[in-house]
Amino acid sequence: MVEFRLKSIYLEKDSQRVGESADGNLVILRVGDQEVGTTNYHHFRVPVHATVDIRYLEQNLNSILRIIFQLEKSDLSIQYFTWNEDEKHYIDSPLHEEIIQSQSFQHILQSVSFTGENHFSYVTNSLQRLTDQLY
């Protein structure tokens, strides 16, 4: 089973730090990672204009899942990198069906949400029963 844990979150926004915004337009970003069937949630205050770069590390440390999005532009990008032992660095790789259909990957996507005074949007629909879950 493929499992990812939250590694880091980066913001790209005119050299402002998390929690600072000239116009006060902040949203609460909620992201989750899964550990032995339990989803852990993390909350951050981010400017609504920022580009958010979330990175997850696979449990065996052989791959990185990267989710990049801009809330205002509704842009979403998902990248997957695997460790190349010969070159000693991570290389861009395609997302395999096993990863896309894994419970951990689905929970990651379904846990990302933004809430704020004027914003409330989910990257994906609310949690639904997955094909690899036991009934």
Mean pLDDT, rounded to whole units? Answer: 77
Query: Helix count?
Result: 2
The shape is: globular
Cα Rg: 16 Å
Task: Report the end-to-end length measured between terminal Cα atoms.
Answer: 17 Å
Cross-sheet strand order for the largest sheet: 1-4-5-6-7
DSSP strand content: over 45%
Low-pLDDT windows of residues: 15-21
Strand segment count? 9
Q: Main β-sheet: number of strands, strand sense, barrel status? A: 5 strands, antiparallel
Helix % is under 10%
Note the run of SSEs as H and E.
EEEEEEEHHEE
Estimated structural class: mainly beta
What layout of secondary structure does this protein have?
Layout: E1 4-12, E2 26-35, E3 38-47, E4 51-58, E5 63-70, E6 75-84, E7 89-93, H1 97-100, H2 103-111, E8 113-115, E9 120-122
Antiparallel strand pairs: 1-4, 2-3, 2-8, 4-5, 5-6, 6-7, 8-9
